């Protein structure tokens, strides 16, 4: 805080008002679709779902970018980041006027969403100018920039009526670009950033900035903000549509009425900051949740006619709320939501003064995601129930959960504080968990973990490692199921009315592989940064997005192809999970058991593909979820399908797996490492060689799994492929889980060599069977390929820890024995995760290669010949570097017992 005291009052006020003005303009741009979206909807003839996605898309970008923009603000300063963000947003807003098609509008809307990221830039920037005692007031004044939503609703309708929606976009674009230039010229770097630059202090690492995100308290704050801010943004977007539909209001009247809510939810934020400084944020949050619950209950009660049998005859009355009391109630709700927004952000610079960007970015991101998710859910609830007030009922339930969690946490804090010296508690203890302010790790951290110690392993280690393994396996199985669900869904889309071409269907089957592989690169380094327990919980929960999205999208044949592309990309969340899961499990087991443990985790996890391909064809034939799951789709040849069950069936299991990961898994303190420490693997030759070999095994497995159903259907149309295609992934997954011990005993290098030899023969068998038109030969050869890929998956991963146990001592001879072991384990885990990321691109390239080969040659044989040549390359690499006499693994695998090799290397 010492840096903040060096700023003069004049400098503080200039920084505050420049930031508030900039944020107001950004918020005006961010909510521009609440007005111009109505005109675009009529111009393009959009459905309700398409309209909901259009107005929500900028909210998604603005939310997701908040985390990274907060980090960049901490690293590069708010003056630079704020200016660039506004200029880029202006360019994207102007680009709206060039759009002519719905997909083009969605792409431009993604760019407009950058405006929403301005909030966390301003929070990180403004908080550095003020001492703790004034930060609540300062951030409350800055938060008044939410009034930009009211500015848009007041002014945009009149500009739209006079000159058209294009003029709205152009005027708003010019205004925000000019503000970006003014901010860069007039603003100054904050004192903390200036001092760090003058003293030559390096910017904090990503691991240091993200460390507080492990604290459960941060996620509790995020839920509060999901309601007070996410609910505010969602209602700001939804109300014009609600008012025109329910009350028949003109667009200008609806805009002004919605603006009254936005005004109340914005300008009183400054007052909320003052109240938080004076009475404490806990008190303000109780006011917010209490009054919001009452107001939302009133709003959520649907119009109902009652008849009472009185002594003089029936007495009738209605609970319907007129437009004027509706707007007044909304105004009061907005007032309390604005107080809550200030109260939430009062705590962040107090508890996390050195991590405002990262913590504030996460809280802001979750809140912003509420603004994206809630309008979509509002529309879905309206379609499902037919009741307009269902949107307010959802917000009422969120308030009850938030208030309950806060109250229980406060009570627990008070119980723990009994007998504690109050002077030792952190400032503003009303919402804080009793903890050391510098301690940011979650519970269940294993500070002492020595799996190579036989006594420790026998007494304690094995039990804990196996518990984490058996929680990890079902989570990974679900990840694979969601990742590959398109391999079955695409084969049935034409039957339920979707008129997609063969090329478009192959793209849908391929894109989950592309996004999953790309996410794996990112996920590869997350376990050492965040911890395996937290990351497994978050990555498993993320599967809910594609699972629910698919369930809703397939119910309407008018759903745009772009939506399906987006959902296919989101399925990549499941593919990314594998990298972090394998890296996490690798830390738990000793080298002698690592191969089998990784084989079980990966093999039974891979089983998710087979489970999905077996289960989905069954559940889509029945209304498993009743009316809640939606109506069936009629087939052209007669019959019905509940295609939505392909997504919905996984939701309850994902929820259970998420809870199990949070409650039952552990973090390992020794596994902690920054990205910079892990990035050393990019200089290791064997990292890149193993990427090639694992692409040959796992890339083939996941690529064949993704493309096998559609390839079989095209090559042998007379065969009902969906009845048995699950057998391929099943064989591959079980062979991986069941053959890990073979590599531990005989050596991964030797097993890998003979695996590639067998894959060459099996691929030639597939080519021959296609040429002869023999389905039996085709199926048998593919089963052999699946079996061999599973064996190779286990053997290649068994090789990596042994390779690094030899390479690290050679490359880093100055390390002590314990440091050498830790370095070897860290590099092994990172390489295992990274190779899995690269290999996962097989899920994209193999189905795409089929489609390209069919398009160019009329047959998939060209792609198969390419795969065969690649296997020959993998065979040569395995022999040249690892299994020949003099190769890296020759002595270990032939000259010593395999079980002892890792320990003596």
From TrEMBL:
Bilayer topology annotation: Multi-pass membrane protein
Record key words, sorted: Membrane, Nitrate assimilation, Transmembrane, Transmembrane helix, Transport
UniProt xrefs under CDD domains: MFS_NRT2_like (cd17341)
Name by which UniProt lists this protein: MFS transporter
Residue ranges of every copy of the Major facilitator superfamily (MFS) profile domain listed in the record: 14-414
Signal peptide: none
Keyword Magnesium found: no
Organism: Paracoccus marinaquae
One Pfam family, short name: MFS_1
InterPro entries in the record: MFS, MFS_dom, NO3_transporter, NO3_transporter_NarK/NarU-like
Subcellular location: Membrane
Keyword check for Zinc-finger: no
TM spans (from-to): 15-40, 52-73, 80-99, 105-126, 138-163, 169-187, 223-241, 253-272, 284-302, 322-344, 356-381, 387-406, 469-493, 505-523, 535-555, 561-587, 607-628, 648-665, 686-707, 719-739, 751-772, 778-803, 829-850, 862-882
């Amino acid at each position: 805080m010492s840096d903040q005291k060096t700023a003069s009052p004049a400098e503080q006020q200039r920084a505050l008002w420049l930031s508030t003005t900039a944020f107001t303009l950004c918020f005006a741009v961010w909510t521009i679709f609440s007005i111009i979206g109505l005109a675009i909807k009529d111009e393009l003839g959009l459905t309700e779902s398409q309209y909901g996605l259009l107005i929500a898309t900028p909210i998604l970008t603005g939310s997701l970018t908040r985390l990274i923009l907060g980090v960049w603000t901490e690293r590069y300063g708010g003056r630079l980041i704020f200016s660039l963000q506004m200029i880029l947003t202006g360019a994207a807003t102007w680009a709206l006027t060039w759009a002519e098609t719905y997909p083009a509008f969605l792409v431009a809307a993604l760019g407009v969403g950058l405006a929403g990221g301005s909030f966390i830039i301003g929070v990180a920037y403004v908080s550095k100018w003020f001492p703790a005692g004034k930060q609540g007031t300062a951030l409350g004044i800055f938060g008044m920039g939410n009034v930009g939503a009211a500015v848009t609703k007041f002014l945009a309708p009149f500009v739209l009526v006079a000159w058209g929606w294009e003029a709205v976009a152009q005027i708003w674009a010019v205004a925000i670009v000019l503000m970006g230039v003014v901010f860069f010229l007039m603003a100054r770097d904050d004192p903390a950033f200036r001092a760090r630059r003058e003293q030559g202090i390096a910017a904090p690492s990503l691991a240091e900035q993200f460390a507080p995100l492990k604290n459960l308290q941060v996620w509790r704050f995020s839920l509060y903000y999901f309601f007070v801010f996410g609910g505010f943004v969602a209602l700001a977007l939804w109300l014009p549509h609600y008012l025109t539909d329910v009350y028949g209001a003109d667009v200008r009247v609806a805009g002004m009425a919605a603006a009254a809510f936005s005004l109340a939810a914005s300008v009183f934020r400054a007052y909320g900051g003052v109240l938080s400084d004076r009475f404490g944020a806990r008190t303000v949050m109780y006011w917010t949740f209490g009054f919001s619950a009452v107001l939302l209950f009133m709003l959520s009660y649907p119009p109902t006619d009652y008849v009472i049998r009185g002594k003089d005859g029936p007495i009738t009355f209605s609970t319907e709320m007129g437009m004027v009391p509706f707007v007044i109630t909304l105004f009061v709700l907005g007032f309390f939501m604005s107080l809550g927004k200030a109260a939430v952000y009062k705590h962040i610079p107090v508890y996390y003064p050195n991590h405002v960007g990262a913590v504030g970015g996460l809280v802001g991101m979750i809140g912003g995601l509420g603004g994206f998710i809630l309008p979509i859910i509002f529309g879905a609830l309206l379609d499902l129930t037919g009741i307009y007030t269902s949107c307010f009922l959802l917000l009422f339930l969120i308030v009850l959960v938030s208030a309950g969690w806060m109250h229980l946490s406060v009570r627990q804090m008070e119980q723990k504080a009994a007998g504690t010296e109050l002077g030792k508690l952190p400032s503003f203890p009303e919402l804080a968990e009793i903890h050391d302010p510098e301690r940011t790790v979650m519970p269940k951290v294993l500070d002492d973990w020595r799996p190579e110690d036989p006594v420790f392993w026998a007494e304690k280690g094995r039990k804990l490692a196996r518990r984490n393994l058996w929680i990890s396996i079902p989570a990974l199985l679900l990840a694979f199921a969601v990742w590959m669900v398109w391999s079955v869904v695409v084969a049935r889309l034409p039957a339920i009315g979707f008129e997609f071409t063969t090329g478009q269907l192959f793209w849908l089957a391929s894109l989950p592989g592309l996004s999953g592989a790309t996410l794996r690169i990112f996920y590869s380094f997350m376990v050492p940064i965040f911890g395996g327990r937290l990351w497994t919980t978050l990555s498993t929960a993320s599967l809910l997005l594609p699972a629910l999205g698919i369930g809703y999208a397939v119910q309407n044949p008018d759903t745009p192809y772009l939506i399906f592309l987006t959902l296919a990309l989101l399925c990549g969340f499941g593919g990314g999970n594998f990298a972090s899961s394998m890296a996490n499990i690798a830390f738990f087991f000793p080298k002698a058991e690592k191969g089998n443990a990784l084989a079980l985790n990966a093999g039974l996890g891979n089983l998710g593909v087979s489970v999905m391909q077996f289960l989905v064809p069954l559940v889509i034939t029945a209304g498993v979820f009743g009316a809640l799951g939606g109506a069936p789709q009629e087939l052209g040849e007669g019959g019905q399908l509940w295609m939505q069950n392909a997504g919905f069936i996984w939701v309850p299991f994902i929820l259970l797996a998420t809870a199990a990961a949070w409650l039952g898994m552990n973090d390992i303190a020794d596994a902690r490492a920054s990205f910079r420490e892990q990035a050393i693997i990019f200089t290791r030759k064997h990292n890149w060689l193993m990427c090639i070999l694992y692409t040959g095994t796992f890339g083939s497995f996941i690529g064949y799994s993704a493309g096998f159903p559609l390839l079989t259907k095209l090559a042998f149309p007379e065969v009902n492929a969906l009845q048995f295609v699950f057998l391929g992934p099943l064989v591959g997954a079980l062979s991986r889980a069941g053959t890990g011990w073979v590599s531990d005993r005989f050596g991964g290098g030797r097993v890998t060599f003979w695996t590639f030899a067998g894959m060459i023969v099996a691929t030639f068998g597939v080519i021959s069977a296609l040429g002869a038109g023999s389905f039996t030969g085709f199926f048998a050869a593919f089963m052999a390929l699946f079996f061999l890929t599973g064996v190779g998956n286990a053997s290649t991963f068994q090789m990596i820890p042994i390779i690094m146990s030899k390479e690290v001592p050679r490359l880093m001879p100055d390390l002590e024995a314990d440091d050498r072991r830790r370095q070897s384990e860290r590099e092994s885990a990172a390489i295992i995760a990274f190779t899995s990321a690269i290999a996962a691109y097989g899920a994209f390239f193999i189905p795409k290669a089929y489609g390209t080969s069919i398009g160019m040659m009329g047959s998939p044989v060209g792609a198969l010949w390419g795969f065969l040549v690649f296997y020959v390359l993998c065979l040569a690499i395995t022999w040249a570097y690892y299994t020949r006499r003099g190769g890296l693994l020759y002595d270990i695998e032939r000259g010593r017992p395999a079980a002892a090799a890792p320990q003596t290397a």
